[in-house]
Amino acid sequence: MLSLVGIAIVAAGFAVRLNPLLVAVAAAFGTGLAAGMGVVEIVSAFGRLFNANRYICLVYLFLPLIGLLERLGIQVQAQRLIGRLKAATVGRTYLVFFILRQVLAALGAKDLSGHAQMVRPVLAPMGEAVAEENLGRPLAPPERALVRAHAAAAENIALFFSEDIFVAIGSVILIKGYLAANGIEVSPLDVSVWAIPTAIVAVVVHGARLLLLDRRLKAGKGAAAP
């Protein structure tokens, strides 16, 4: 039971609003010492686990790159590019991205897009630019928030309903394991195949929502106060 002292340290540390990193380290040391581990053994466990999960830290390499691209005008260039397409609307732009995102996720390239690397610096500014071009005026704050929210939703929904089409993904194995535990034997390929109709329905349903977004903006309903 003494090994549970780490939970008490975490609760106490967060209660007094200490640095979360220091709280986590203190909790780890407290749990290790209570379990009879030495200091060197605990530090070795830290190093071993960090090395095993070092790929998680790769995201921090992208943040300076995205910041540099924004400083050099990637949002401005995205707005200029979409402004040249006369037939473009917010809904059509997001729908094209939605379908492309689904195709990439179905092929296993689900990490090629994301909120930090695609939605915020590229997709949302493109949506704002084309909306202002279509309306002929700057967006009101609620309208701008609505356009940005739909950009984020396009990323979330496209990924969620299409990543299971790729057979070599953890969620497919999780589904297979859950079904097997309840006496239903299926192969990972079966799960992937039956994820395709769901992805198609997602395109139809959310595609309709995106096209209705254009009507909502033109009618001025998106400018209403939240």
Structural class: mainly alpha
Reading the helices and strands in chain order gives: HHHHHHHHHH
Major sheet summary line: none
Number of strands: 0
Estimate the mean pLDDT confidence: 82
Helix count from the secondary structure assignment: 10
Cα radius of gyration in angstroms: 23 Å
Low-confidence stretches: none
The number of distinct structural domains comes to 2
How are the SSEs ordered, and which strands pair?
Blueprint: H1 5-15, H2 20-34, H3 39-52, H4 59-71, H5 74-83, H6 90-106, H7 115-135, H8 141-160, H9 170-181, H10 188-218
Helix pairs in contact: 1-2, 5-7, 6-7, 6-8, 6-10, 7-8, 8-10
In brief:
With 226 residues, the chain is an all-alpha fold. 73% of the residues lie in helices and 0% in strands.
Molecular structure report:
InterPro entries: DUF969. It holds the Pfam family DUF969. The chain crosses the membrane at residues 25-43, 55-74, 157-179, 191-212. It comes from Nitrospirillum amazonense. This is Putative membrane protein. The protein is mostly helical. It folds into two domains: 4-55, no CATH class; 61-219, no CATH class. The chain is 73% helix and 0% strand. The protein has ten helices and no strands. Helix 1 (5-15) runs antiparallel to helix 2 (20-34) and helix 6 packs parallel to helix 8 (141-160). The longest helix is centred in the last third of the chain and has 31 residues, at 188-218. The N and C termini lie far apart (50 Å). The model has no long low-confidence stretch (mean pLDDT 82).
